[in-house]
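Page 47, continued from p. 46.
Same chain as before, 463 aa.
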Amino acid sequence: MKFVCPLWRPVLGAALAAFAMFAICALPTQPAEAQGGPPVSLIRDTEVERVLRAYLDPILLSAGLQPEAVHLYLVNDQSINAFVAEGQNMFINTGLLMTVDTPNEVTGVMAHETGHMADGHLVRNNQGVRAASIPLILSMVVGVAAMAAGAGDAGSAILMGGQQIAQRTFLAFSRTQEAAADQAGVRYLTATHQSGTGMLRIFKRFENQEILSAQRQDPFAQSHPASGDRITALQGLVDASPYRDVKDSPEAQFAFDMMRAKLRGYIERPDIALRRYPPSDTSKPARYARAMAYFHQPDMQKALAEMEGLLKDEPENPYFLEMYGQIKVEMGKVEEGIVPYSMAVKVLPDAPLLRVALGAAMLGTEKQGYTEQAVKELQTAIGQERDNAFAWYELAQAYARMGQTGRAELATAERYFALESFQQAQMFAVRAQRQLSQGSTDWQRANDIFTIAQSQLVDARRR
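Result:
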């Protein structure tokens, strides 16, 4: 669940695959709560990720978790939702970020999901399944026996009753976990001197949705606590906190507004985004959203004009510089795009996505003089984020252009390894070893990829 790959990229010839500001891909596997539905699509963006990590990391520390061990993913989904999956993986839907109004609401959701991780609820789900399976198995035994004795209707009724009991047993277990996560979330917010009103506001929003969708609901057939009961319990916890009236700082609110505008401008239909942020709105979030919407249309001249205005106000804003470079690349002015990308990397040297975009743009010029510089940028990005499959893809192109076939094959093996495509990783690792000096560092890495990939494939077959 750790890896993403870009599906969108500008088309400027076979050699150009510039890294998009928003890289979207469908995951090969699905988190537990998403199984049975379509594959989860992820979005990556430096600005969004950094804003969200600023919310999440203090919460994780208050829960006794190491921030670097928790992976945060942005899901391209319009629903208001967040969830955790196997391991320490947290997923936040874009619909949540685009709908709520304050950072505190997002922090409240993150605190709740952290409660699930810190208390090991995903592992304990197996206990709930086992508890629920007992009445199901017993009903199957008795029901089948009744049917064999000629009492078909009675046997069917027994089977259906067992299924209902099993379902309610598991859902009761799940509601207990959700209530515990609520309580833990408020503790973490209090420990970090934050208000729980944002979490309360989110659940009130859910309550309103429930009222609109179904006037009468069976609380025992829901996996989450009934919202009325949940809100009552949360209200008491929030009121008892000495930080209940703490508001988001103006700086935090502004960063959130910019992030939300960026997402709305890029993800929503351009006509919707432009109605939401009309030209009469001259605020920075509105101009940012319009730049994204124009870029998405595409109307590059208007997008460029909006970004030039923003850069006039903040000439060293790395996210504005990144967007400006992306527009230039999309317009076919690749070399002009390299300049703002380079400036963005200078401002944020520890942002691997920016370096990948710079390296990809350099390769996109199809000029040999840029190739070595691109390799340096891509190698640095991979050192910062080793599982960036697109960085490995670009590095493979660079090595191939330099005539370093063995390293190109190894970079391709790394790419597939990052994507957990272990058969392809094995194949390219073997091809790399044929080209590399036996016993060299690169040769040994290819051997490691082959061995680990083989082990993963064996484990998959056993499952």
